[in-house]
Amino acid sequence: MPEGPSILILKEAVQQFKGQKIVDASCNNRTLDAGLLKNQTITDLKSWGKHFLICFPNFTMRIHMMMFGSYRINSHTAKPARLHLQFENGTELNFYASQLKLIEEPLDDIYDWHADIMSPKWSSKKAITKMKALPELLICDALMDQQIFSGVGNIIKNEVLFRVKVHPESLVSSIPAKKLNDIINEAIKYSFKFFEQRKAGTLKKHWQAYNKKECPRDKVPLQKRDTGRSHRTSFFCDLCMKQYH
């Protein structure tokens, strides 16, 4: 599943379509009446965490890549696109294996921009307040909660917790305030590292915990287990990552 940094890369890559008029559109699974998009002009292109947003004068198209989503800019595959957009200047934009939703409400009524880990409006204070309101929350679930850390996915979760030496099954309410701040700061720092490494094609080379078998600090096998309510895989070291109960 593309995480927030990858969606930010997408947003940067498609700025050429801002102000462009759509002359043809199609959807391959009928979840959307593609005819609504014809003759519409894109007014803006935004992102919120893992959501990519195509803005029009009276509505917004939300695209979620889910687990296996992908996109093509000015090219396409042999397989019909989930969403195909053709522009009057001959360019095209295609999304595959993605979830589509039409949003008619103002985006500010739907999205908390302070929750987007890579947004200039990000608020650490709000994140802490939201976590404190859920005393039984595990840190692995807190980081994966898109209403708290929008854009953080399983890769970022694992890399952040390993770097700050916190066990994924630690209870948020038991984590010291300083350590909780360390987690938040590392989540921001690593998300931007992810962004740069993903653009450079070197992301996997820098993983310290995700999909790894050995702890690079202690040279012992990393534990691998589905953790928390999300049941997403966590990689952790029993020796150097402290569990707060």
From TrEMBL:
<feature type="domain" description="Formamidopyrimidine-DNA glycosylase catalytic">
    <location>
        <begin position="2"/>
        <end position="102"/>
    </location>
</feature>
<keyword id="KW-0227">DNA damage</keyword>
<dbReference type="Pfam" id="PF06831">
    <property type="entry name" value="H2TH"/>
</dbReference>
<keyword id="KW-0238">DNA-binding</keyword>
<dbReference type="GO" id="GO:0008534">
    <property type="term" value="F:oxidized purine nucleobase lesion DNA N-glycosylase activity"/>
</dbReference>
<dbReference type="GO" id="GO:0016829">
    <property type="term" value="F:lyase activity"/>
</dbReference>
<comment type="similarity">
    <text>Belongs to the FPG family.</text>
</comment>
<dbReference type="InterPro" id="IPR035937">
    <property type="entry name" value="FPG_N"/>
</dbReference>
<keyword id="KW-0255">Endonuclease</keyword>
<keyword id="KW-0326">Glycosidase</keyword>
<keyword id="KW-0540">Nuclease</keyword>
<dbReference type="InterPro" id="IPR010979">
    <property type="entry name" value="Ribosomal_uS13-like_H2TH"/>
</dbReference>
<protein>
    <submittedName>
        <fullName>Endonuclease</fullName>
    </submittedName>
</protein>
<dbReference type="InterPro" id="IPR012319">
    <property type="entry name" value="FPG_cat"/>
</dbReference>
<dbReference type="GO" id="GO:0003906">
    <property type="term" value="F:DNA-(apurinic or apyrimidinic site) endonuclease activity"/>
</dbReference>
<dbReference type="InterPro" id="IPR015886">
    <property type="entry name" value="H2TH_FPG"/>
</dbReference>
<dbReference type="GO" id="GO:0003684">
    <property type="term" value="F:damaged DNA binding"/>
</dbReference>
<keyword id="KW-0511">Multifunctional enzyme</keyword>
<keyword id="KW-0456">Lyase</keyword>
<dbReference type="GO" id="GO:0006284">
    <property type="term" value="P:base-excision repair"/>
</dbReference>
<dbReference type="Pfam" id="PF01149">
    <property type="entry name" value="Fapy_DNA_glyco"/>
</dbReference>
<keyword id="KW-0234">DNA repair</keyword>
<keyword id="KW-0378">Hydrolase</keyword>
<dbReference type="GO" id="GO:0008270">
    <property type="term" value="F:zinc ion binding"/>
</dbReference>
